[in-house]
Structure formats: structure tokens, C-alpha cells
Amino acid sequence: WGFNRPERTLTLTFAPLPPGPGGVAPAAVPPVTLRLGTDANRNVFARVGDEPGASVYAVEPEIVNELMLAPNDWRDRHVLTLPAGATIAALKLTDLATKQVLIDSTPDAAGKPTVAARDPDALAKFIEQLRNVRAQRFLPGGVTEKFIAAGAEREWRFQLDLTIAPPGGAQATTRTLLFSERLGGTEQLAGGRELDAIFQVEQPILDSLTRLTARDPGPPPPA
Q: How does DSSP assign 44-87, residue by residue?
């Protein structure tokens, strides 16, 4: 069955159960060990516990692919999360290739941009999305000036500087995110120096950034 050298071994530890009637705490649930093994035909089987009579189950092979082995796959994907009541006091987006400041805005109390932008709707969505930035996936290694992506060595294209005002009038903090060019329909990388990590952004932020940074084609030619 493949359990002498299992493909995966998981130890599941359960949270304590709430007290029952009269405040009596129930007995703790002991940890459970789950093993996934394969046979010569690469079928996948599961076995719970070490008891001699433990049952063996045929399971879908996709479970092995879902249990990734790279540590970065298990990392907390919340890159930037603003606490309740915190606001983005200032936002500056710079094109590092041309040194041009694309956006320099101080949102109002409702999070709406206070300066005109080429795409005000995209900027308002972008500000809202920055309250909870998640990584779609992390890349190995930390932040460097140059990195390999889509088969080529690349440099960061955009820099986003955020000033975050905590609730209660506490001192504001700053966060900086670096962005690559858009590498495909669903791929754009970002780097956080505070996290020392490079990650792929999720689709909504990618789409908003594209609308804010894409080259303006100018007016159409005359008929």
C-alpha cells in the first residue's frame, strides 16, 4: 500500500472542545496521524493511525498535489492588512524606468482619491484593494534589485509608497511595495522590503494597476 515510505505524513492536532453542561471540560481529543501512500501503479491510499486493524482507503490522487512540500506554499499570504479604523493617508506610485510620478494622492476620510487621475474609478478600487493585499503565491528567496521571471532577468518597474494612519491618532507608518511589469494575463510580481519576499499579486490588483500604468495611446487619428 506504500505506507512503509509514505508520500505524505500529516499530524492533525485538534483545538480543545468547549465545556459541556455544568462547565465540565470534555476529554481532549488526541492528535491523529494521517499517512498517504502509493502503490506501483501510483494509486493513492490513506490510513489513519497506527493500530494494526486500521482501515486503508483509496483516495483521489489530487490530495498529494494539494499538500505541497515547499515551505513558501504554507506561508501566510496576507501581505498587507490594515486594521479597522486605519486609513491610507497618502499614496505615491512612481515609474522607476522613467522616474515619472504616475499618482500622488491623499485620499479623503472615505478612502476616495482627492486628485484627478487618468482613471479615477481604477484608482478608487486600487485604494480599497490596498487595505487587504494577499499573495497569490510566494517565490523562493528575498527581495533583490534584479530577479528572474518569465525566463528573463528583470528589474522592478513601479514603486508604491503608502502612508498608513492608524486609528486613534497614532503616528503614521510607511510601507513600500515594488511591482514588476505585467508579465502575462494573470501574472505580475511584487516585492515587499519589510517582508523580504517576492510574490505574485492577485488578479484584482493586477487589473487595477494595468489601468493606472498602461501607456496612454492618446487621441485617435482623424477620420
A: EEEEESS-TT--EEEE-THHHHHS--SGGGGS--EEEEPPTT-E
Q: Distance between CA 73 and CA 159 in Å, rounded?
A: 25
Residue 121's H or E segment, with its range, is helix 120-129
CA distance 34 to 11: 6
Hey, how many other C-beta atoms are within 10 angstroms of the C-beta on 130?
Answer: 21
Confirm if 86 and 165 have CB atoms less than 8 A apart: yes
Non-local CB neighbours of 204 within 8 Å, separated by 6+ positions: 125, 129
Q: What percent of the chain has pLDDT over 90?
A: 59
Q: Return the axis-axis angle of helices 120-129 and 203-213, rounded to nearest 10°.
A: 140
- At 205 the three-state DSSP class reads helix
Start-to-end C-alpha separation, the chain: 73
Q: In what order do the strands lie in the sheet with 173-179?
A: 78-81, 132-138, 197-201, 189-192, 173-179, 158-165, 87-95, 100-105
Q: What's the one-letter identity of residue 60?
A: E
pLDDT in tens, 16-45: 888 888 888 888 889 999 999 999 999 999
- The helix or strand, by DSSP H or E, that contains position 206, with its residue range, turns out to be helix 203-213
Look at residues 183, 185, 179, 184 and name the one whose alpha carbon lies nearest to residue 209.
179
